[in-house]
Amino acid sequence: MTPAAAPGGGFLGPFIHAGIFAQLIIIALVLMSIVCWAIILRKLRTLGRAMRQTRQFLTVFGYRTRLGDYERVAKELRHAPLSALLLAGVKELDALRADFGKIEGGSELLQQLIPNITEAVERAASKESDRLQSSLAFLSITTMVAPFLGLLGTVQGVLVTFLGLRGTQIPTLQTIAPGISDALVTTVMGLLVAIPAALFYNYFVGKARDLESEMERFASELTGIMRREIVGTQIEERNRT
Q: What are its GO cellular component terms (predicted)?
């Protein structure tokens, strides 16, 4: 018995020797892999920067007493999601002050309009959540689709192999093995694409949820800061009169 001849072509041998259907699936998986790794590298950079600046933001946040100090910190750490929330709240507060701050009883009116500030902060939080989770859907789809694409190529390859054996009286391992091994290439490719996508998808979702939880806590704290700022303005006005 002579050993089966190993397919040539080196690293690309399995792809070269695969059928047209398998090659199309492999090309699709390679394109999905390229897009996935582009997303992974970009997310590693943006989420890492957001986490780092959020920690810096919270570190300096406890040492500030005036709203102007918070605003300055937010502009310096603009990649922290909390900065967007703070700037949105300050912008809404400034707009309300411009509209009602100079009229009689304006401070009491501002106190009643604090929900407007809360809504502005919530809108900013929603935008930041969308930004943190952008492109993650593609990773999720890849984790589900890539293994099935690979399996489809394998099933098709096995089917072609057995169809080729029709009429053969004594099929041997040497006649079956090349077709089976070529068919399994697509399954291997599918798993190579899906496994990193699944790992990084769950890692990024975890980081995004951590930042979203931080945003929820900060939004509540920010509303309290705004309320104290408005009450402080009311006290100053009463002291002047």
A: plasma membrane
Asked whether 150 and 188 are in contact (CB, 8 A), the reply is yes
DSSP H or E stretch at residue 110? helix 106-112
- For the record, the structure tokens of 7 come out as 């397919």
Q: Are 33 and 192 in contact (CB under 8 A)?
A: yes
pTM score:
0.80
Cβ(219)–Cβ(125) below 8 Å: yes
136-164 vs 20-61: helix crossing angle, rounded to 10: 160
Task: Give the SS3 label for residue 237.
Answer: helix
Angle between helices 67-76 and 173-240 (to 10 degrees): 150
